[in-house]
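[worker-b] picked up task from shared queue
[worker-b] task type: protein-ligand structure
[worker-b] ligand name resolved to zinc ion; SMILES cross-checked against name lookup, match
[worker-b] sequence length check passed
[worker-b] input payload:
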Amino acid sequence: MRGLTISAHGGLDQIEYRTDLPKPEPRRGEIRVRVKAAALNHLDLFVVAGMPGVKITPPWILGADATGVVDAIGDLHGISDNNLKVGDSVIVNPGLSDHTCEYCQAGEHSLCVNFKLLGEHAPGTLAEYIVIPARNAREIPKHTPVEQAAAFTLSTLTAWRMVVTRARVRKTDNVLIWGIGGGVALAALEIVRTIGATSWVTSHSDEKLALARGLGAEHVINYATTTDVGKEIRARTLKRGVDVVFDTVGEASWAQSLGALGRRGRLVTCGATSGPIVQMDVRRLFWNQWDIMGSTMGNDAEFDAVTSEFHAGHLMPLVDSVFDISQGRQAFERLASGQQFGKIVVRIPD
Ligand SMILES: [Zn+2]
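[worker-b] inference finished, payload out:
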């Protein structure tokens, strides 16, 4: 079967399109999906470069997001009640949990002590066929455009948990979202907008900020031409600051995020694309009574919630570009360039 793989860590030149990969077989609790399209996430770049403690077995299939058609079903007796049938169109939750540990039993599957991600700790989705736990698939309407279905799950699920579950954004909140144009940031903007809260977005590109305005972002800040986003927001809000910050940048944005955060503010982080080590004055933390929160992926209830939104035609992701799997490396180059506005999708045609 066809797939996009690496056999060693390094630059994007490690990415190889192959046609000789073995077709996987579903075991107990698993289904096989004929993938129609897969979408890229920043995570995939980290996998290509290599991450501490994460080992790959060559040829390693990349990718976390996917949509496709159920092609074979293993023995699901007593395991899954999602009633999937061969021929159903599905979206895939890339987060794998054991469903037995303390956190899983409490319904918090992304806190699982054995949590794994497709493409990172298990073979990825950029292949003609994938085998996944049946619990990780949800049926979607057959007529849905495959590009949007492929691009949906990881970004929307991550943003949903950040905005709805963790920060509990309300209509009266002012919300700052870093790096508009990325999948999670765009999904977060859409959810914040649906709630009716006031959005502030940043980017290094005026073009992306103009596009964000078109999507309903109320306040935009170019962080490349603004010395300090925190100070800028304080100036524009009569020193009040915002109620919520979503920071996926880490080292480069952290101080400015805290500078933007008002009293009783909530900061949620789900990424550190610029680096992981940050500083904080704890006196400001207690004096302002801030909540600093982490968030990653989502649990099964949140997967069900975003799947319902998908069925209703809500929170549809923006697709930046579409590549054929044989041109997969170019898709990764587009992702690495940082020029995209929306998701980069890879099609796996018949
Ligand atoms: Zn668990």
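[worker-b] attaching auto-annotations
[worker-b] The mean pLDDT is 96.
[worker-b] releasing lock
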